[in-house]
Input
Amino acid sequence: MSGKALQKYLDKNLKDMKEQKIYNEISVFSCGNGPIIRHDGKELVNLSSTNYLALSNNPRIIEATIKATEKYGAGSGGTRALSGSLDIHEELEIKLAELVNMEAAITFQSAYNCNIGAIVAIMDSHDAILSDTYNHSSIIDGCIISGAKIIYYEHSSVKDLRHKAKSAVDSGLYNKIMVITDGIFSMDGDIAKIQDIVDIAEELDLITYVDDAHAIGVIGQNGSGSGTHHDLVGKIDLQIGTLSKAIGVVGGYVAGSKDLIEWLKRKSSPFLFSNSMTPGAVGAAIEAINILNESTELIDKLWHNGRYLKRELKKIGFDIGQSETPITPCIFSNAEIAQQFSQELLQEGVYAKILSFSTIPLAAARIRNIPTAAHDEEMLNRAIKAYKTVGINMGII
Ligand SMILES: Cc1ncc(COP(=O)(O)O)c(C=O)c1O
Output
């Protein structure tokens, strides 16, 4: 593409986005990502973070970041396969495997990289992947890069999954077939039907892959995610998750059998060709797991706040979908209304963003609210009052 061709492409597409009112303004903050954030000189109740347990601002985690940075430096200085494997990377992997009750774990720089690294290391053009239509973009990217045939099944439809899985097996076209699902769906907060998925996988010999990015630190024993939540420890082949949401730092992990992790350490591109998690992030993630293991206090508070927000928004007449977790979507008839609603909320002192348009159908635009363990009732009431005011002003409730 010549310089002119690029400019033409950008001009047209940026203009289209703005005309369709789906151009996402990026907000910049001058403070940490807590329950109250400062933006344009205003203090706002923040309902748009994934800092579920407020661990990113926790003094113990900050202290652990500093200590690890002082001991090992700011960067790891290499890829894991060269000189960037520190003893604390291994300590974190052992702790993660213990937390999620799997034999072993491998860490990546993000869960995005886990999905790229793990799917591509296992699946290829002779294979097929059954993917829930609501799966996260990083899963879809991993599936596409792998070259495997992607077979989408209707969101959480056990019937459609069974039918498509059986057809794929019966076709005899594929060497291996994998089924992939979010553990908790990031857009609507519903929980995947993993027991049914595992049953189908056992019957048809499918590889099972669960992305626990929104489940780690939120469901399961001490926040250990889908395996313990569904009492399916040992029945899920790959359980991946992020260290950037409830864990409060950055990074990702894949947990599974010892052989799987040995394979991924030899075959996953982000592990082999991109420098490893920074020492500060690793030290912080280890401390976050210590906190999860010590008490469920933060998780309990998160769920209490989630139930409260969902109940109150529903009571005043908003469509909050089918969430079963603290994720509280507010669903609007189209993107333009959702965008305007989000802007009006800002005027009322609430920061609640509409979800990125590449991931959701425009007709079902939603603002995704996530209360955290650090919100108190006064903050949530302020947000609920703002929702009510804007809802009435816009004729939505
Ligand atoms: C289901 C799912 N998987 C993966 C990711 C990527 O997580 P990370 O921030 O660690 O790259 C996200 C983040 O939004 C997610 O929701």
